[in-house]
Amino acid sequence: MSRVALSGEPKLHVKILSPTQVYYNSLALSVSARNKVGPFDILDGHANFFSILTKGDVSVNIGMGSKILTFPISGGIMKVTQNKVTLFVDIDSGYLAATEAKSAKA
Q1: 34, 48, 78, 106: most buried, per Cβ within 10 A?
Q2: What is the largest CA-CA distance in the chain?
Q3: Which of 99, 103, 11, 21 is nearest to 31 (CA)?
Q4: Of 14, 89, 86, 9, which is closest to residue 49 (Cα–Cα)?
């Protein structure tokens, strides 16, 4: 998957959610994902876009020294309009188990 090296002020509003949980809801510099055609990136000013996502990682570059958050998904849908990126996803069950175990320790 392509990972875009960017700097500057995050301008995309990104929301990653499933039917039961919101995983991310904040600003970002870029979003990288994969569809049937291959990997792609969403940057500031991207044209309106709609895509069915395939299994793989969704990467969100949140800036702050190019910090990248990664969400492993088994599939989903992405909608991009006017610098708003919304992803309805099925998070990989292994990621959910690790997240729940981490929360239980805290």
Answers
A1: 78
A2: 43
A3: 11
A4: 86
